[in-house]
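**User:** You know discrete backbone vocabularies at least as well as I do. Would you mind producing a protein record, from residues through to fold? Write it directly below this note and I will take it from there.

**Assistant:**
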Amino acid sequence: MEDIDPVVFYGVNNAHLQMIKALYPKLRIVARDNVIRILGDEEQMCAMEESTEKMRRHIMKFNTLTEEDILSIVKGERTNDEYPDGVVVYNISGRPIKARGENQQRLIDSYNANDMIFAVGPAGTGKTYLSIALAVKALKEKKIRKIILSRPAVEAGEKLGFLPGDMKDKIDPYLQPLYDALEDMLPAVKLQDMMDKHVIQIAPLAFMRGRTLSDATVILDEAQNTTPAQIRMFLTRMGWNTKMIITGDMTQIDLPREQKSGLVEALKILEGIEGIGVVKLNKKDIVRHKLVTRIVNAYEAFDKKTKSEDGKEKEETPKSEI
């Protein structure tokens, strides 16, 4: 059972395994890591093999397994949890992850219809989280062989200096939001195993040069902080059977004032190209704390007021005679 976390299957203190043994008294069941060995009555062996496969598929979908689920599966009944329409994946607690709003659904539809998707919108609209959920779903369904997540290593308005540790220690703080989303969707043991085997790869944008990314879902997060050269390099890494999702927030560009954002330029250059989808989310799509929406509204009003005042000052200032 290499696709799942054995801890979820066996239960706390092997409670699920003990229950399975009680349900199949004519069998001798020995479990170690991801391997279960069964000896005994041939009819019960066939029944247990079928039930075990159903449990494995249940865990693959929902990331959880309860005693009620085990009983339902062994009895040949449907489990309490169904797979409702619109659910992308389930998180580690069994909660469904699905579109929360019209524009988030557009992002899902655009992913299904295109090979490259730009998802642009303010903080808290679920761009990164939903993108990673789509990638995890594709990996679970074996439509791809790996997930590649990237971000430009740019400080948000402050200079952090030299970070301690090796290369991984230095870049991890920039990539933490990506780890957070993955940890919510995949059990810790399984996630670590996938990262050790490079099935899931997380790397700063600078490490992408020279690579061809095939059989993968590739996500570039915080793309508003790329330079035109960087995003051009990234977009041309695309290989066969690959989907790319580029996310960004135009209101949070942390590049030096004189540096142009690569995302802004890419959206203009690539407009209307077949196979590229653009989804624009707005403040109505914010799914964080209700205060986030109010904060975004307040800053938008402030920005408009500042621009208006700056424009008036320029009009009132007379041009010096030469």
Q: What stands out?
A: Strands lie at 27-32, 35-40, 87-90, 96-98, 116-120, 146-151, 200-204, 216-220, 242-248, 276-280. The two ends are 81 Å apart (CA to CA). The chain has eleven helices and ten strands.
